[in-house]
Design brief:
- The complex is a heterodimer of chains A (about 400) and B (about 375).
- Chain A has about 400 residues and is α/β, with parallel strands linked by helices.
- Chain A has two domains: about 130 residues, Aspartate Aminotransferase, domain 1 (Alpha-Beta Complex), CATH 3.90.1150; about 240 residues, Type I PLP-dependent aspartate aminotransferase-like (Major domain) (Aspartate Aminotransferase, domain 2, 3-Layer(aba) Sandwich).
- Chain A has 14 helices and 15 strands.
- In chain A, the strands form four sheets. Chain A has a seven-stranded mixed β-sheet with strand order 3-11-10-9-6-4-5, with helices on both faces.
- In chain A, a hairpin with a 2-residue loop joins strand 1 and strand 2.
- Chain A is globular and about 60 Å long.
- Chain B contains 13 helices and 18 strands.
- Chain B has a seven-stranded mixed β-sheet.
- With about 375 residues, chain B is an alpha/beta fold.
- Classes of the chains: A alpha/beta (about 400), B alpha/beta (about 375).
- Chains A and B meet through strand 5 and helix 6 of A and strand 17 and strand 18 of B.
- Strand 5 of chain A pairs parallel with strand 18 of chain B.
């Protein structure tokens, strides 16, 4: 057989383009901030994960600059070999203290935390129980495991209870059961009922793992996250996974919990062991971001004020904002074509929101996903609301 | 893009019996009309065509619609304002199954690349038979549901969904797979007896199952055959070599037999006996005979059709008596993710004709949906 080694690259890309599933990349030529320059145009940034506005915070930037002077730009190696720097440990201690946990282990990204740790926590003879709408990084982590998998209906505790009951019937009995859920689900902005999950888990001796990427810096006492939000103890939620790339505005991931978890994870997670350390610049910036969050506690409050203000205004205008409980506010418009058009027109009017449609969300629930920012002023929000109203009427959505 | 020729027909009397308590219109059209039945098919056809029109206008797609005259297409197509060409069928408004079959054959001669029909299970059966007689079973079909009782898998869930599916197919985003056509004896049905058989598998349009995942901003597609293979591998790995396995009908269960290297009928019930023997196409009596005095007996079954019926449709050989003998804990349910998604309300149904057994089966049951992957699904 005569092979063309690379023909598929073009073919498959073109197929994606034909199906309208390819990404067209927009280019930022400014920091990610409320008013950013996107594709050469100044627009209100309403689809960034930078909830607290820390991505361009002077103190965070200053810490990064100082770290470059002290450590250089790269760690030079994996942490397991020769790339383990003081600043990594300082970040871990700062975070663990903030989270009121025994220990935190830092990964290069959140994706690598999920992909590296999950397959180590459950293997052959075990069961992983996963919410049907969990993030792709969880799905990929689960795929790497040799454990059985059970999927439960999104946030449906009756369904989860049935799965756990059924799991007890397995012969031979499952050695370990690991329940994994997103904390905040980013398409709808709803929150996992972690208190009920923890209760069910306890009845079955199951481990609880929560990916709190979108809840960190947002939920709980001064942004401590979902475990704090539900006032749960660390022996009820065993793994709290999170990222530094969302509310903290930098990059990186972490797992937080017991010292045992820490020791286990850094000796077992292959993504941690076989990849170079997070850069000292990122570590220093992430550490500074946690500190700024605590010093400037108005940021979390303002984020929620902005969320309530915007959400109410949108609802008053007649927009459907779904079942959101967080600063992720979906503006559900129905058809994919409507969502696309709405996003296009809003961008022309100076508002940058992300259109999302099938297969990312069910048919007929296409939407613009709006993400709030603590640094939006009332004027910014009024601007956005006015544009949504204008374009929404233009397209007969409201 | 090459312009597809779409053959489109309406069975105008499909679904008329329902509201007047006739359960289907086979042979009782006049009685239905006398009881005041109003045609449903034109309304369903209109919903389908309106959505289709909206989608083709948005996608700026040229389509080549070929349809029938009068109430079998023309009336509604013109009302909606779609361009079409016409075949000279039917001759009068009193249409019969023969008109459906003649129309399909005409579409085939006109090189239709897909046949869309508005109707019920009976219409699906007629469309299938016409294609079979034309020796053109490779042409995919798509059902717009309008019947009183629709069990066959070749139907979309709603008329609007059918329009989406067709559009995806025309744009090269959908593919085809073998889906069930079930055949009900309407005379028995009206007498409250259900006699439903798996009639055939027809090539039908289906949209690949995209995993819908929060935050995962790229679609992750599950291939139906790969999904069935994953299920089969898991079942085979966990099978008991000394067990007796009653294998229900359907492509998912057949995949397990294929992997075991044993012969299995697609439409019938077969038994895989202690890894040494296979009994093909067994009746209830034969099953009961084979499992007499045995206690390591299992049933492997997949829900049939878009109504998600687990027992009582197309697999009546696995009778209430058999189910009682085997026990609920030894029923292994398998279903692909697409199949579960397509089942109305996402619940399974049982209708064994024995209320006691139906009640016994109700509640949650474990369903294997992929390799080493399962979920709990409610049986109502």
């Amino acid at each position: 057989m005569k092979r063309n080694p690379t023909a598929f690259l073009k073919e498959e890309y073109e197929e994606l383009v034909r199906q309208g599933l390819n990404w067209t990349l927009k280019v930022l030529s400014s920091p990610s901030q409320p008013w950013a320059i996107v594709d050469g145009k100044k627009v209100l940034m309403m689809c960034a994960n930078n909830y607290l506005g820390l991505a361009n915070h002077p103190k965070v930037k200053q810490a990064a600059k100082e770290a470059i002077d002290k450590y250089g730009v790269g760690a030079g190696s994996d942490r397991s070999i020769a790339g383990n720097m003081e600043i990594h440990h300082e970040l871990e201690e700062t975070l663990a203290k903030f989270k009121r946990a025994e220990a935190s282990l830092v990964f290069q990204t959140g994706y690598m935390a999920n992909e590296g740790l999950i397959p180590q926590l459950a293997g052959k003879g075990d069961l992983i129980v996963s919410d049907e709408l969990n993030h792709g990084s969880i799905i990929d982590g689960v795929r790497l495991s040799k454990a059985d998998r059970a999927i439960y209906k999104h946030c449906d505790m009756e369904d989860l209870a049935k799965v756990l009951e059924e799991a007890e019937k397995h012969d031979p009995p499952y050695r370990r059961i690991l329940i994994i859920t997103d904390g905040v689900f980013s398409m709808d902005g709803d929150i996992a009922p972690l208190d009920q999950i923890a209760k069910l888990a306890e009845e079955h001796g199951a481990m609880v793992y929560v990916d709190d990427s979108h809840g960190e810096g947002v939920l709980g006492e001064n942004g401590r996250g979902i475990v704090s939000h539900f006032k749960l103890s660390r022996d009820k939620v065993h793994v709290e996974m999170g990222t530094f790339s969302k509310a903290f505005g930098v990059i990186g991931g972490h797992i937080t919990g017991s010292r045992d978890l820490y020791n286990f994870a850094y000796n077992k997670a292959r993504t941690w062991l076989l990849s170079a350390a997070m850069t000292p610049v990122s570590a220093a910036a992430a550490k500074a971001a946690i500190e700024v969050l605590q010093e400037e506690s108005w940021r979390v409050r303002k984020l929620w004020e902005n969320t309530e203000y915007f959400k109410k205004a949108m609802q008053d205008l007649g927009f459907n904002t779904g079942k959101t409980q967080t600063p992720i506010i979906p503006v559900i418009v129905g058809e994919a074509m409507t969502a696309r058009k709405l996003a296009e027109r809003l961008f022309e009017e100076g508002v940058f929101g992300l259109p999302i449609f099938y297969p990312m969300v069910p048919r007929g629930t296409a939407r613009i996903r709006v993400q709030m920012n603590a640094e939006f002023t009332k004027e910014d929000l009024d601007f956005a609301i006015e544009k949504f109203e204008k374009v929404g009427k233009e397209l007969n959505i409201i | 893009m090459t312009s597809h020729i779409i053959g489109f027909l309406i069975n105008p009397i499909a679904g008329m019996g329902g509201r007047v308590g006739l359960k289907g219109t086979d042979g009782v059209v006049e009685e239905a009309i006398r009881r005041g039945a109003k045609p449903i098919a034109p309304i369903r056809a209109e919903s389908f065509l309106r959505k289709l029109k909206e989608l083709i206008e948005y996608e700026k797609l040229e389509i080549n619609l070929v349809t029938c005259r009068l109430n079998m297409g023309e009336d509604v197509v013109k009302k909606v304002g779609l361009k079409a060409s016409y075949i000279d069928i039917p001759k009068s408004r009193n249409t019969t199954a023969l008109d459906t079959m003649e129309a399909v054959k005409k579409f085939v001669l006109l090189n239709a690349s897909v046949i869309v029909f508005v109707g019920g299970d009976g219409t699906a059966r007629d469309v299938y038979n016409a294609l079979k007689e034309s020796n053109m079973l490779d042409i995919p079909i798509l059902g717009v549901p309008s019947g009183v009782k629709i069990y066959s898998g070749v139907f979309a869930v709603t008329p609007e969904d059918a329009a989406y599916s067709l559009m995806e197919y025309l744009k090269g985003r959908a593919s085809t797979m073998d889906l069930e056509i079930l055949d009900i004896d309407e005379k028995a049905f009206r007498e409250d007896r259900i006699d439903l058989k798996l009639y055939a598998y027809a090539k039908a349009i289906y949209i690949p199952f995209h995993i819908q995942s929060s935050k995962q901003l790229s679609p992750d597609t599950v291939d139906e055959v790969e999904n069935q293979m994953g299920i089969a591998r898991y079942i085979v790995e966990t099978m008991d070599k000394n067990g007796i396995y009653i294998l229900g009908p359907g492509t998912t269960v057949k995949r397990i037999a294929d992997l075991l290297g044993i012969k299995k009928t697609l439409l019938g019930v077969d038994i895989y006996y202690k890894s040494i023997k296979v009994y093909n196409d067994v009746s209830e009596k034969e099953i009961l005979n084979i499992i007499k005095n045995e206690d390591n007996v299992w049933i492997i079954v997949t829900p049939i059709g878009r109504q998600g019926i687990l027992f009582g449709r197309g697999n009546q050989q696995i009778s209430p008596e058999v189910i009682k003998r085997v026990g609920k804990d030894r029923i292994i349910v398998v279903a692909t993710q697409r199949k579960l998604r397509d089942i109305a309300d996402g619940v399974l149904r049982v209708d064994t004709q024995d209320p006691e057994v139906d009640n016994y089966l109700k509640g949650y049951i474990k369903v294997v949906i992929d390799y080493r992957t399962w979920r709990m699904v409610k049986i109502v």
